[in-house]
TrEMBL record:
<comment type="function">
    <text>ATP-dependent carboxylate-amine ligase which exhibits weak glutamate--cysteine ligase activity.</text>
</comment>
<protein>
    <recommendedName>
        <fullName>Putative glutamate--cysteine ligase 2</fullName>
        <ecNumber>6.3.2.2</ecNumber>
    </recommendedName>
</protein>
<dbReference type="GO" id="GO:0042398">
    <property type="term" value="P:modified amino acid biosynthetic process"/>
</dbReference>
<dbReference type="InterPro" id="IPR014746">
    <property type="entry name" value="Gln_synth/guanido_kin_cat_dom"/>
</dbReference>
<dbReference type="Pfam" id="PF04107">
    <property type="entry name" value="GCS2"/>
</dbReference>
<dbReference type="InterPro" id="IPR006336">
    <property type="entry name" value="GCS2"/>
</dbReference>
<dbReference type="InterPro" id="IPR011793">
    <property type="entry name" value="YbdK"/>
</dbReference>
<comment type="similarity">
    <text>Belongs to the glutamate--cysteine ligase type 2 family. YbdK subfamily.</text>
</comment>
<keyword id="KW-0436">Ligase</keyword>
<keyword id="KW-0067">ATP-binding</keyword>
<dbReference type="InterPro" id="IPR050141">
    <property type="entry name" value="GCL_type2/YbdK_subfam"/>
</dbReference>
<keyword id="KW-0547">Nucleotide-binding</keyword>
<dbReference type="GO" id="GO:0004357">
    <property type="term" value="F:glutamate-cysteine ligase activity"/>
</dbReference>
<dbReference type="GO" id="GO:0005524">
    <property type="term" value="F:ATP binding"/>
</dbReference>
Amino acid sequence: MVSVGALTVGVEEEFLLVDAATRITSPRAAAVLTRLAEVSLPAEGMSFQAELAATQIEAATGVCLDLTSLRGQLWDGRACLAAAAEAEGMRLVSTGNPVLTEHPVPFMPGDHYARVTEILAGAVAGYESCGCHVHVGVADRELAVGVSNHLRPWLPTLLALSVNSPFDRGRDSGYASWRIQAQARFPGAGIPPWFPSAAAYDRRLHRLVELGALADSGTTYWLARPSPWLPTIEVRAADAASTVDEAVLQAAMVRALVQTALTELAVGREALPVDDQLCAAALWSAARYGLAGPGIHPVKELRVDATVLLEELLRRVRPALEETGDLATVRRSIRRLGPCGTGAARQREAAVHGLPNVVDMLVRQTGRR
């Protein structure tokens, strides 16, 4: 096993702003960001950014070496955002898709967002979906592409572990992650293709920009990619996590998967080019059922229980988790999902008492230390 001591990790969390009285998403991100500009950030490298919809806002941690510091930065980012939101009469909610919203949803100003909305047109109308994005430090883009190839079969299981968006505009979508279905309308969404090299990845990306399908080379919708701006691989499989612990769980699993892939690449084991359609089917199944139903094994081409896939993933990454000392934390977090259920299951349970109750629950969980 190659040492993981140098593998850094960071997380970007996307949130929704909801009106404190109506619980409907509120397009006040600019006002919240103005308040945050006056706040001293508690850790180096932390930042806050706008997103496409004016109802969304993002908090990014700095570079972390361990889960303890990551957890602290995630909590600090949420606390800063929640305080700024409350000062504007809003609440901060971490969910993969809005529970209650109204049309039209305005977009943030700027040339980049204008180009994105021009390309996507009606496909992006009302889009307010939020994800939990994990960055893991990788030495170069060639390695990052090789790692992405290894991650492809496991991205659906990372999603199944994180599903937290069963509702869409006041209705139960029937999916555990409606966010993935909302993103499926975008060109090139879902599991990334298998690439033989970083040069091949860049050629494909640039061609999609030339063809008018993407706004620029930094705007891709694949669930794993070499970061356009940082020396990392960025994994975007997960719905926004209701709790800090669930965001930490996703970060731990992603880092362990990246380390496992690096170990295999170091001894010359390239990833199998798993069929694109099987990967897409596995992602669909994870979005539909989460951990509470069947999954699809894209390598063995079998329909199995989603929890069987999770157990296989845990066996795969156990050596990496043991080396970082994260195995006990991961096991504890997954055990909590047993009695409590995933975020999607908790939302549906709260919905028995009405959708405003779901939003109230999400507000509490978002701010729970």
